[in-house]
């Protein structure tokens, strides 16, 4: 098989808050034999506009993303939520549009979330990582329910030497982030994330992992506000063995 | 009932602070979900049945006019009467008219969400007719002067101790020292009190889970048997139903029944599934002398042909709210009108207008758990998003939100400026975070930092680091 050309859709939160996740993604993709590029003309997938009912801006952003990424064999994002936006929701935006419908379909078919791409498409076999400790994994909603990602991250975690996985109660229940929901309905979001942090703490795990930075920042922020010691990282950071820097919201 | 949906946020804040309510909601989070999962897993064809149920309703909605006409003909053939009610007011007048003709003083009622939608109880009371709820949950909230907080478990927000208090206050003719510690003793007491009401009633009102076009039959599913007594003992039976309850054949009903109870309560079938067709015939040993069906539209035909048509597939099982993290947090009353949870978040703006109901489709994380369990495969998050689009188009959402969104989008459409701006912004926030690596407050981010810290950014953006080290390659 020729070396697949992968365009990395960094996602806005990783770009802004947690570049280490982007570099971890590049490392994992290259390890799996991909030729990775990062188009500079990317900002966001458009979800903030899409979920606020602003179709026109969403579409304008989607057109930019498609134009920047359609030349690659695959488009990979370290986020189930952004990948689902590109893969499942973009086609809805262009349905019935002569000029864009087919073009969008071609693009969306090539989009994958990072972890499931590694296991299901390029069959990553070995990992550079070692972690001596217990981890718990939260299934972020979009990845889980729109893309069917649940087995893949656990499969890769089991390939990490030294790691012990402790499942939390209801790992498939929302953490209360929901994009702008968490600030528009802060009281309700707080109640939901409070349930989640209690479930996380009950596992006794010293590291919380997930595949979506929005959810991770929400849970990390709540754990830290509650004074809990659980560290929080994106799963790609552990899989790539890039654990030297501070955890999410951790001391620098 | 009065619509307090516009005050959803303050309703929710009150609900979150209500400790009794929070204790009661703890029961929703476990029971319903586990039970549904067990029966769904036990039935290999469950997923295929869901597809089937969806297809049956889609077909029905595509030919709704034909099936409604066919149904009406069959009802008339069997000696019943069909009354068309375009609005809630029409439905109330029709019911009152029937009650007046029967000289009714007492009306017993089986559980019916349509009766809540048209607020029939308050109306009948104003007219001097006593409505008596006979479903245990409905009976409890009627005593409390409350509305249902869940479409199949109306009193799920009430604790056992509160029910005991209500019963002692209401049933003051019974011995004061009687034991009401157990759910069974509470149930027995309600049974005893209600028995006489069943016998006294002049009119019985039930809802309908299905209206069968091929036979003119109305179908109700219950667990207490109260529905049967409500519809067979009085001399008049009124079925209150909305038009989308139409189902073409008995075979179709039997298909949908297989997903209904499983999704709702985790039962394979409800304890009672009761079919009624017309009034008592000569050879029948019991049954009403008159059989009326009030068919309510109340805004539903306006949903046909729009992106909200799929909502009319809903069979009111409650699975969406049982699995909803927002419903778990605030309960049903916070939603402010008849229908709570995800189905309410779509239906309320459809029936009451998005000006009133706009909060509800916004108050969702789009976690998608509702859609994943909906037996009719209704794309609930997608329809909530459509309501947000309608709001946005009409400029109904708050100005600050619109401006925030518009200025963000302006940058998001201009990658070079976005890169420049985001570098500056992240560098400053990282500075504010200092060595601690997080912020406990940040201007304009109060919604976030009220309850959580904000993890500080690394400092340089990914693009900034990448383009300077490896960027030449791409």
Task: Compose a concise summary of this entry.
Chain A is 49% helix and 14% strand. By secondary structure, chain A is of the alpha/beta class. Chain A folds into 2 domains: 5-120, no CATH class; 130-239, Rossmann fold, CATH 3.40.50.
Question: How would you describe this structure to a colleague?
Answer:
The complex is a heterodimer of chains A (252) and B (474). Chain A has two domains: 5-120, no CATH class; 130-239, Rossmann fold (3-Layer(aba) Sandwich). Chain A is 49% helix and 14% strand. Chain A has helices at 12-17, 19-31, 47-50, 55-69, 80-93, 101-109, 114-120, 141-147, 151-158, 181-184, 186-203, 213-225, 235-239, and strands at residues 5-8, 35-37, 74-77, 111-113, 130-137, 161-165, 207-210, 231-234. In chain A, helix 12 (213-225) links the parallel strand 7 and strand 8 (231-234). In chain A, helix 5 packs across helix 8, helix 7 (114-120) packs across helix 9 and helix 11 (186-203) packs across helix 12. Chain A is globular and about 55 Å long. Chain A starts with a strand and ends in a 13-residue tail after the last helix. Among the domains of chain B are: 43-298, Rossmann fold; 414-473, no CATH class. The relative contact order of chain B is 0.13. With 474 residues, chain B is an alpha/beta fold. In chain B, the strands form three sheets. In chain B, strands 1-10-7-4-2-3 form a six-stranded parallel sheet, with helices on both faces. At the A-B interface, helix 1, helix 2, helix 3, helix 4 and helix 8 of A face helix 1, helix 14, helix 18, helix 19 and helix 20 of B.
């Amino acid at each position: 098989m020729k070396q697949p050309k992968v365009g990395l859709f960094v996602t806005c939160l990783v770009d802004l808050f947690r570049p280490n996740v982007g570099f971890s993604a590049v490392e994992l993709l290259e390890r799996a034999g991909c030729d990775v590029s990062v188009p500079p003309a990317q900002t966001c997938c458009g979800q903030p506009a899409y979920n606020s009912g602003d179709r026109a801006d969403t579409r304008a952003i989607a057109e930019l993303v498609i134009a920047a990424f359609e030349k690659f064999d695959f488009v990979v994002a370290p986020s189930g939520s952004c990948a689902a936006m590109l893969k499942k929701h973009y086609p809805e935006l262009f349905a019935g549009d002569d000029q864009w419908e087919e073009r969008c379909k071609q693009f969306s078919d090539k989009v994958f979330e990072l972890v499931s791409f590694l296991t299901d498409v390029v069959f990553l076999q070995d990992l550079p990582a070692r972690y001596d400790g217990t981890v718990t994994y939260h299934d972020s909603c979009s990845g889980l329910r729109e893309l069917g990602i649940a087995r893949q991250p656990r499969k890769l975690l089991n390939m990490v030497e030294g790691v012990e996985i402790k499942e939390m109660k209801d790992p498939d229940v929302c953490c209360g982030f929901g994009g702008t929901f968490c600030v528009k309905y802060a009281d309700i979001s707080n109640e939901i994330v409070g349930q989640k942090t209690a479930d996380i703490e009950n596992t006794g795990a010293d590291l919380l992992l997930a595949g979506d930075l929005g959810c991770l920042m929400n849970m990390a922020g709540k754990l830290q506000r509650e004074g809990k010691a659980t560290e929080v990282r994106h799963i790609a950071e552990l899989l790539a063995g890039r654990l030297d820097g501070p955890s999410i919201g951790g001391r620098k | 009932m009065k619509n307090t949906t516009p005050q959803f946020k303050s309703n929710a804040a009150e609900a979150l602070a209500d400790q009794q309510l929070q204790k009661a909601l703890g029961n929703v989070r476990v029971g319903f979900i586990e039970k549904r999962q067990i029966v769904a897993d036990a039935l290999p064809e469950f997923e295929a049945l869901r597809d089937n149920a969806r297809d049956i309703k889609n077909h029905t909605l595509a030919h709704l006019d034909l099936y409604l006409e066919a149904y009406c003909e069959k009802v008339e053939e069997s000696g019943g009467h069909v009354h068309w009610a375009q609005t809630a007011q029409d439905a109330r007048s029709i019911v009152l008219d029937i009650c007046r003709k029967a000289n009714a003083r007492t009306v017993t009622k089986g559980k019916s969400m349509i009766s809540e939608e048209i607020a029939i109880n308050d109306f009948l009371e104003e007219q001097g007719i006593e409505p008596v709820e006979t479903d245990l949950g409905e009976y409890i909230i009627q005593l409390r002067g409350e509305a249902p907080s869940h479409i199949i478990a109306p009193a799920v927000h009430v604790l056992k101790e509160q029910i005991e208090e209500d019963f002692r206050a209401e049933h003051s003719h019974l011995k004061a020292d009687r034991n009401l510690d157990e759910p069974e003793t509470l149930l027995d007491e309600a049974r005893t009190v209600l028995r006489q009401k069943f016998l006294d009633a002049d009119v019985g009102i039930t809802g309908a889970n299905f209206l069968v076009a091929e036979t003119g039959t109305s179908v109700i599913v219950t667990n207490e048997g109260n529905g049967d007594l409500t519809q067979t003992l009085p001399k008049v039976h009124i079925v209150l139903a909305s038009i989308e309850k139409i189902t073409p054949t008995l075979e179709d009903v039997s298909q949908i029944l297989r997903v209904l109870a499983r999704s709702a309560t985790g039962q394979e079938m409800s304890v009672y599934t009761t079919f009624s067709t017309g009034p008592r015939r000569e050879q029948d040993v019991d049954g009403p002398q008159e059989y009326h069906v009030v068919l309510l539209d109340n805004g539903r035909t306006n949903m046909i042909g729009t992106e909200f048509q799929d909502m009319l597939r809903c069979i009111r099982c409650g699975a969406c709210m049982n699995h909803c993290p927002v419903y778990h947090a605030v309960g049903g009353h916070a939603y402010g009108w008849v229908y709570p949870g995800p189905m309410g978040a779509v239906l309320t703006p459809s029936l009451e207008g998005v000006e009133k109901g706009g909060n509800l489709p916004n108050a969702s994380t789009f976690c998608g758990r509702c859609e994943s369990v909906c037996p009719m495969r209704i794309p609930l998050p997608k329809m909530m998003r459509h309501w947000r689009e309608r709001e946005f188009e009409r400029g109904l959402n708050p100005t600050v939100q619109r401006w925030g969104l518009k200025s963000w989008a302006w940058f998001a459409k201009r990658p070079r400026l976005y890169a420049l701006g985001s570098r500056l912004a992240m560098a400053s926030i990282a500075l504010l975070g200092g060595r601690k690596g997080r912020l406990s407050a940040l201007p304009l981010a109060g919604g976030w930092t009220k309850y959580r810290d904000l993890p500080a950014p690394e400092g340089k953006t990914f693009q900034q680091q990448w383009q300077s080290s490896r960027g030449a390659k791409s």
